[in-house]
Amino acid sequence: MPADIPSGVLSLIAAIKTAFLQRKPADDAAGREIKKVLSLLEPLPPLTGGFQESNHAATRCIEAALRAGNESTSALLDAIAPVIRFLPWRYNYPPCHDIPGLELNIAFAEIIGPEAPFRSDSVCLGLTLIGPSTLYPAHRHPAVELYLVAAGTATWTLDGEPRNHPPGTYILHPSQAVHAMRTHAEPLLAIYCWTGPDVRTLSVYTQSVPGDETQRTNSLS
Predict the structure, then answer these.
(1) Residue 80 and residue 109 in contact, taking contact as beta carbons nearer than 8 Å
(2) Is residue 150 within 8 Å of residue 192, measured between CB atoms?
(3) What is the pLDDT of residue 212?
(4) What would you measure as the largest C-alpha separation in the chain, in angstroms?
(5) Is the peptide bond before 2 cis (omega within 30 degrees of 0)?
(6) How many beta carbons lie within 10 A of that of residue 102, not counting itself?
């Protein structure tokens, strides 16, 4: 691992905080969630893990993703680019037999969280990467989730209502709300945050058996 990666990750966290602070308005539901996230990130949780170059299959989409932003996310992408290949990219779901190969096209890199390099049981912060022409199937989780699209315009569906969201868009998913994403010609790269009393229970696809939530374990680290 290059010696400057931890400091680069700190710079990325600072860039995410700056983007959150610059969002207007600040008094709607997403704005209130941003305030909550920022409060939970002060002070920053301790760094207890390391970073190494990822070989996850989805990282083949990184260069295309970094080119799919816009002016509103250029500073954020500048902070992501130096460290993105050294983030802990993984796919946490069991196999989805209806859509084989998702583990090759979807990956998550959690920077802050219960099993992340920066350990926290109250907030998660990370990145989602989805390859082109990929459906991230309908899923749910106990945590409240806030997304900031950094690159790529995809179709996001919340409670059955699809909308196209370009870079710079904030999307809020309430606890247990069913949501999905579908990419088109571009990959999707987005920042996500989880808050609430349960940030340890991972997402499940909605076709799973009700109550079959998966708890995080050290095997995810």
Answers:
(1) no
(2) no
(3) 39
(4) 45
(5) no
(6) 21
What's the N-to-C CA distance of the chain in angstroms?
Answer: 16
What confidence score (pLDDT) does residue 159 get? 87
Asked if residue 177 lies in contact with residue 140, where contact means CB atoms within 8 angstroms, the answer is yes
How much is the pLDDT for 210?
37
Complete DSSP assignment for the chain: --TTHHHHHHHHHHHHHHHHHH-S-SSSHHHHHHHHHHHHTSSPPPB-S-------GGGGGHHHHHTS--GGGHHHHHHHTTTGGGS-EE--SPP-TTSTTHHHHEEEEEEEETTSSEE-SS-EEEEEEE-TT-EEEEEE-SSEEEEEEEE--EEEEETTEEEEE-TT-EEEE-TT--EEEE--SS-EEEEEEEESS--SBPPEETTSPTT---B--GGG-
Give CATH for domain 5-220.
2.60.120.10
Indicate the pTM of the whole model: 0.93
- Compute CA 83 distance to the chain's CA centroid, rounded to the nearest angstrom: 15
pLDDT value, residue 97: 82
